[in-house]
Write a structure and sequence with these properties.
Blueprint lengths: L2 H5 L1 E5 L24 H20 L6 H13 L7 E3 L1 H10 L3 E4 L2 E6 L2 E7 L4 H5 L6 E5 L2 E2 L6 H8 L6 E7 L7 E6 L1 E4 L3 E7 L2 E6 L6 H14 L4 E5 L5 E2 L1 H8 L8 E7 L4 E5 L11 E5 L6 H11 L4 E4 L7 E7 L5 E10 L15 E3 L4 H5 L23 E3 L17 H27 L1
Parallel strand pairs: 12-13, 13-17, 17-18, 18-21, 21-22
Antiparallel strand pairs: 1-14, 1-19, 2-20, 3-10, 4-5, 5-6, 6-7, 6-8, 8-9, 11-12, 15-16, 15-20, 19-20
Helix pairs in contact: 8-9
Length: 445
Amino acid sequence: MNFKERVGTTLLFMAIIGVFGMSFLAGKGLETRVSAETDDYEELKIFTEVLSSLQKSYVEPIDNKELIYGAIKGMLNTLDAHSSFMPPSIYKEMQVDTRGEFGGLGLQIGIKENRLVVVAPIEGTPADTAGIKAGDIILKVGDYEFTKETTLLDAVSRMRGPKGTEVILTVERDAKTDPLIFTLLRAVIRIKSVKSKVLEPGVGYIRITQFQEKTSNDLRTAISKLKGANIHSLILDLRNNPGGLLNSAVEVSEQFLESGKMIVSIKSRDGRKDEYKASRSNSIGEMPLIVLVNEGSASASEIVSGALQDWRRAVILGTQTFGKGSVQTILPLSDGSALRLTTAKYYTPKGRSIQNRGIDPDIVVVPAEINEIKDRSIIREKDLERHLESEAQPGEPILIPPTEGSTGPDRVIEQEDHQLRKAVDLLKSWKIFKGIDSRLSVKKG
């Protein structure tokens, strides 16, 4: 029995529960067995005594299901930041989300120091259009004020609602100024996971926003179109990609690696190890490849960038990634609810665990807006409450600081996208030096 058959439905996504939802692998669930040890039953006896006392003596009538759900949520809240209980309505939404269409505002959110923080808005969504930024602190949704007891699932449920309905967000951007008020209309969020274009002659660009069911096929189509445009080099943009499906991450990685190459391994508590390897030849041959990452690149994004970095197949450029190196499993329950449970950790081909550390880019390129970001609450896995322990070792990246303005003639690249400009410049140099090496070889011959 392989790993997926043992643990049920597997989930790899950013440690942040976004208002856009979560992703999971379809499966048949997991048969769970309750230990018959005496100590366990003694502890359960206390639970039943409390439940019985509440039913008999509490001042007002009690909904037993609400009590049970509350107790389950409390149990999961004692574990790591990514384990949680999903009532039937939330679980149903999760099943829809993996197809890339869902309702909401389009925010990736997390909790830092008991405050609800925006990790990043999804491009083209109501939140993005309204001007909500990474690092913003959400104080209120309508009249509901978030407190330290608020969970991410609570926040999700508050922000979601029917298409076209209005929601008002109160946001703190700078502690020294008054909060900002955003009035948004909820929308059906449709995420196109793969976007591509030719930046300039010979340089292709592909952005993956999330790892969904169709991402691998969409990527293959995008690569084919770019090759038809005679590109000689490629940029893969994984910035602010919160992750998604494990299988999708593997299928994306194998399009850049030789068949048989290890992509990721997964180790569970019992020490069992499952390996995922490329099963087909890559789609771009030896074409120069640069992968862009930042603090919003998490989980499945880190699997892809870590595999390409370990095999020296790509230059990783940007800033340190989020650092989520754990695997979640969806365990469906009999009443339509489900557990999202952390069941394993994943490792790069060289055995690196990136938990709490992330992927250190080969070349660190700080975005031009770094001074603005520095004053705000950018969060990573290590900042989350109840995060798992770190096993990673720091790398020795090359640092390239930001520069003012754009020095190149390319008008396709937005002027403020310092990281993308550096990637294009590096690929240009790559081609030039390759040409020089070729001419020297001819002369030697």
